[in-house]
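[Meeting: bench + compute handoff]

Bench side (C.D.) handed over the final construct sequence. Compute side (W.E.) agreed to return the predicted structure before the next meeting so the bench team could plan truncations. Sequence as handed over:
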Amino acid sequence: MKIAVTGKGGVGKTTFTAMLCNSLEKEGIKVLAVDADPDANLAATLGFPEDRHPTPVSELKDLIAERTGAQPGTWGGIFKLNPKVDDIPDKYCLRRGSLSLLVMGTVEKGGSGCVCPESAFIKALISHMVFQSDQHLIMDMEAGLEHLGRGTTRMMDALVVVVRPDAKSSSTARRIIPLWEDLGNKKILFVGNEARTPADVEYLKKELKDHPLLGVIPESEKIRDSGRENMTPFEDERVNEVIKEIRARLEQELAGN
């Protein structure tokens, strides 16, 4: 599977990404986790100690300049749009068992129309990982909608949107749908998070009735405590079982492509 995970800020997309990766890692299944959120927290959520967090790709200024032929921080000039990137995952991934982690970092200049060496390098790297990787690829995107405007996720098998049972979160989720479809992508899937009551589950089903809802993760005191204490969110076995069920439904959806 090659999926991107997004949603409104604060809905728990990084926690879900980490738990999905952990579910695969525990079974020895090869998975590449990519942190493409400028507010990068995936390494910590996966339990890597701070002194082992990988260098973000966007901070490899000398390498980007060498590969693209232009200095990072400039834009609108002439540079290679397809730089060499095939060696980047091997050199800059952090590894633990069957899990690999790559942190993309932040492109400082530009927005939806950014034309700069860093963005070209990262786009080429994502393309390489999608088409050449022999492992699952799970990408934690930035919150909101901007990445869809840039088309960063265009090459993925599916977009998974994490949604809390509230009006603001579901409104963002609904706005994502046409943007994703405009990119030519057909598969958009939803995961509910932090449901406290059956009414929360019914609310999500009603709000997202036109697209597949892979499952709903219950609110967890253990996961909430892990966030406060900067610990991994993997200790709640009830939630782990829900993640396994969501993963099985996700695989079924992708197999039906």
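W.E. noted at the follow-up: Residues 237-255 form the longest helix (19 residues). C.D. will use this when planning the next construct.
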